[in-house]
Amino acid sequence: MYKWIMALLTTGWLLQISSAAPLPPDVKAEVQASMTRGADWLAAQQQPDGYWAIPDSPALTGLSMWALQETDPAAYAAAINRAMVFILTSVHEDGSIWRSPSIQRKGGGLANYNTAICMTALHALNRQELVAVIQNARTYLSKMQYTDGGTYRGGMGYDADQGRPYTDLSNSYMAYEAMRLTQDVEDLRAAGETKADLDWTAAQDFLAQVQNLPDVNTNSYASDTEEDRGGFAYTPGAGASTTNEAGETKLRSYGSMTYAGLLALIYAQVDAKDIRVKSARDWAAQHWTLDENPGLGSEGLYYFFNVLAKSLKASGDEPLLSPDGTPIAWREDLARKLIALQQPDGTWVNDNNRWWEGDPNLVTAYTILALSNLIQ
Questions:
Q1: Among candidates 79, 188, 92, 186, which has minimal Cα distance to 125?
Q2: pLDDT in tens, the chain (376 residues)
Q3: Do residues 117 and 108 lie in contact, with contact meaning Cβ atoms separated by under 8 Å?
Q4: Do residues 261 and 232 touch, judged by C-beta distance below 8 A?
Q5: What is the CA radius of gyration of the chain?
Q6: How many helices (H) does the chain have, and how many strands (E)?
Q7: Domain of residue 233, CATH code
Q8: What b/e string do you get for 63-100 counting C-beta neighbours within 10 Å, with b at 16 or more?
């Protein structure tokens, strides 16, 4: 962890992180109470075998376990331990963490996605006996980065064994996050053992392919409109796109991917003063709202809240300013928004089921983790 802090210092990030305005004490207390209500509901939903919702997706169990850990590890110790055991039964010999799906789907067992989330959640438990599991998962994930040339170079997809070139920003940022947040286990490897890491220069190359920024993304599909400038899209040349008056298909920037792109740039150690970072933050400020996932409405709303909290925590409050120059109190605004959205039973859920957000298990875990980033 010390090495990661030093890296942030040298790229200008630590100053911004330490300058982030804390929540007012009364709001912080409300957040903690809200997290507890949500965690109580989550703990009650755990299945006897230790998983949440469906066994096919250990990532969902990882997110729920992580949420309980962030809320109160002592109070939810039994549920956390059951979840940990379930995740460990999902570990494969090559270090990956996933289960074969009960129905055939594109991406198979979503090995990269499940491994990235589960290894990060296991790392959050801070248990010595899990170090080898996390190290092996890192070795697996490091081999899954797309290293061939072209627009996909440096990115990650749901599963490397899809038989076609493919990467997207969502899977990529989760993999980058997993590798950064767990990198301290590399110092615990035995002497002479090969250490695992990503090609971070290639990661920056991939991020350039999905950011709408002239001179950084020179592909014909990059949008050069003021509305899109600086923001991020899901995958090169596809995903959320729009057709302009000339009939050309262009990437369309939207909220959740722009915050994912900003966080990915931080993990890739792009300097805080770099035009790529500044432009992403400018897009976020110009499109600031908590009433929707900007550009997608209610689709992926809680994913949006989750990645927004993580990215702005990592990059700091300033200089995120509204168009009229007023500082955006994002921590307090987001805290109050999420508390207001909580259901009487302690859950959060999206009426729009796109990307599984109709499942209160997933959405409640997302939200507890978002809230935890507001009080740390």
A1: 79
A2: 445 554 554 555 554 544 457 899 999 999 999 999 999 999 999 999 999 999 999 999 999 999 999 999 999 999 999 999 999 999 999 999 999 887 665 555 899 999 999 999 999 999 999 999 999 999 999 999 998 888 899 999 986 666 667 899 999 999 999 999 999 999 999 999 999 999 999 999 999 999 999 889 999 899 989 999 999 999 997 655 666 666 678 899 999 999 999 999 999 999 999 999 999 999 999 999 999 999 999 999 999 999 999 999 998 755 688 888 888 999 999 999 999 999 999 999 999 999 999 999 999 999 999 999 999 8
A3: no
A4: yes
A5: 20
A6: 14, 2
A7: 1.50.10.20
A8: bbbbbbbbbeeeebeebbebbbebbbebbeeebbbbbe
- Measured in whole angstroms, the distance separating CA 17 from the mean position of its chain's CA atoms is 18
- Structure-block tokens of residue 36: 């507890």
Closest by CA to 308, choosing from 200, 180, 173, is: 173
| Number of domains comprising the chain | 1
Range of the domain at 352: 2-375
| pTM of the predicted model as reported, rounded to 2 decimal places | 0.93
- What are the Cα distances from residue 192, in Å, to 89, 136, 182? 29, 15, 20
Interhelix angle 25-45/330-341, rounded to 10 degrees, is 40
Amino acid in the structure at residue 162: Q
Tokens 């959405």, residue?
A: 363
